[in-house]
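For reproducibility, we list the full input for the guanosine-5'-diphosphate complex.
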Amino acid sequence: MKVHNVEMVISAVRPDQYPEDGLPEFALAGRSNVGKSSFINRMIGRKALARISSKPGKTQTLNFYKIEEQLFFVDVPGYGYAKVSKSEREAWGKMIERYLTGRHELKAVVQIIDLRHPPTADDRMMYDFLKHYNIPCIIIATKADKIPKGKWDKHKKIVKETLDMEKGDPLIVFSSETGLGFEEAWRIIESKM
Ligand code: GDP
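The corresponding predicted structure, in tokenized form, follows.
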């Protein structure tokens, strides 16, 4: 998709604040600092629409970006940030869980992981959660530019094994730096709209 028009519609914490357009939604989830904002910005062709986090784990709202009047990207606050309190984490969990499990417009979760390292326990928990609730997911393994191309396959294999990924789930090697994976990511998202 060629993106010209993006509008940040709302930061929501409760269902009554979600948009009512009925457009398909794609939630973006990932560990703090994994490269989620950079992924969003690359996909929508902006330098800094989705704020690149200076304080990891700071955004605690669901941010709805309307794209080309056709779909929403829903930026979910990063998980696994060690410095938030237990009560903050619980509030986070409830808000996300309510959205992910109860939102009819949600077509898939785009889960961002770091291709360089095996998925963490938090990454696994998120993936297992999606599987448990039968929520379609697309795995984006980003920061691919940081490792040599010859190692991508080996790292992909580690990602698949560590998450115990289902065969049909897409795994896309991505780089927000170079734009690698951009076309493929859009193709898969559009196929699920
Ligand atoms: P977020 O907390 O998940 O939203 O992560 P950010 O998008 O803010 O990225 C965290 C850091 O990783 C920033 O310094 C980015 O510039 C860097 N980064 C993100 N994606 C990539 C990538 O694909 N390649 C490289 N080399 N750096 C990246």
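Residues 6-191 form a domain with the Rossmann fold fold (CATH 3.40.50.300). The two ends are 12 Å apart (CA to CA). Both points were considered when choosing residues for closer inspection.
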